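Supplementary Text 2. Reproducibility record for the structural model of the 186-residue chain.

All settings were left at their defaults, and a single model was retained for analysis rather than an ensemble. We include the record here because the model underlies the residue-level annotations in Supplementary Table 4.
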Amino acid sequence: MNTTDDPARTAAVQAGEELLRLLRLHVDQIASGNDDDEVAEDTDRDLWDAVAAYGHAVDDLYDDDDDDDEPDELTFTVRTRYDYTVVDEKAFLAGGQGIAGAVDALLKRAGGKPVPALEVASLETGSGLITVHLNAELLTAENFAEAEEPTDLLLIDPDESLQFVLDEPVFGSRAEAESAARRSED
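Retained model, structure tokens:
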């Protein structure tokens, strides 16, 4: 079969050729000792992105046509906000970790699951995002009845200050996860 007859095959071949080009460039940079500058870092990042792109292209090539009849997955978002009050300031400050330590303790208590975990047999937990803000007032259900735009209560209040953003992404492949990890190290 000629690759021009099958767009998925053409895409897989092109992605593979780009992967080979970047791999050769990466190997040449290592061999020449020029693997510790910004150009080499860009090549390394591009290489991992190319690994993911090639994997997706090959997946698309060998994807079963019967899957096209299946509907897209149903997804939904559950936003959770918990307000915490420091009841023992002396003990809180004695820990020496402040808010970061308190958030770290919450994450450890969750045991690697999303905070809080929604455990339902028919659901697969996806990516998560946790934001931590300092605020002067706790959120209550009545606040939603009084708000002009109830969705505003889920966003950052002008009187709050953002302290941390913790991202818990879920990746489709190991290559995607490694590529994201490399980008976050920069």
